[in-house]
């Protein structure tokens, strides 16, 4: 039995009517930041980006200068590197990316987009990049807390190809910034396991760590000392106009850091929220 062309055409049209309509992408001029919703392949505008002023980020001056210079070159149409911000948790990695985006836009007329993609949606990167390439807008593609915990997760291989190794490569109007607690994006035991079970251990390790090599700019972040921790809190107190003297908040700040076992930007911000709550003052 053969089907004529007219019947095949009508079947195809019927299937198209049954299929859900593809979402219409928003105007990229409608916002300065978007979140990629991979399940429906839609860029969702972010009305207000959750970030702080770059001047409030203390103890990471070198990292801020490096990332700012790299981003300004990219925004101005010059070559720039993908960046990996790695290191201690709560040390200001993602805060720096968002604050730096705001600074570059305030200096350059707001022409740079920030698009966030979640770690679990990395496999959808080629479709997102195809849309961003066609848009022509210069875009920071941002993935927070990027890491791979299992050898069965092969999405890191597709990420490698997208960043530098594929036939198309990364679009010239897109740069990729990622944060991670791990320098090589994978736990040490995962790399060691590959070394112990592979026929050629050195080749196995090269395969596992070569993803981080796709980032031309590596910026390390570490826990801060006490004076830097105090400077963070003093900056927040002044910025938000909290009515308390430094003498009164210092002892509480030390106790707060000790109960959390670390001094970092995140711990400082959590202390400020606690302090503002006790004082009955909003953080606006």
Structure description:
By secondary structure, this protein is of the alpha/beta class. It folds into two domains: 33-221, P-loop containing nucleotide triphosphate hydrolases (Rossmann fold); 226-279. 46% of the residues lie in helices and 12% in strands. It has a seven-stranded mixed beta sheet. Helix 8 crosses helix 9, helix 8 (226-240) packs across helix 10 (265-279) and helix 9 (246-260) packs across helix 10 (265-279). The radius of gyration is 23 Å and the shape is elongated.
H/E element order: HEEHEHEHEHEHHEHHH
Number of strands: 7
Q: Structural class per helix/strand content?
A: alpha/beta
Calculate Rg over CA atoms.
23 Å
Which second-level CATH architecture of the largest domain applies?
3-Layer(aba) Sandwich
The poorly predicted ranges are: none
Main sheet strand line-up: 2-1-4-5-6-3-7
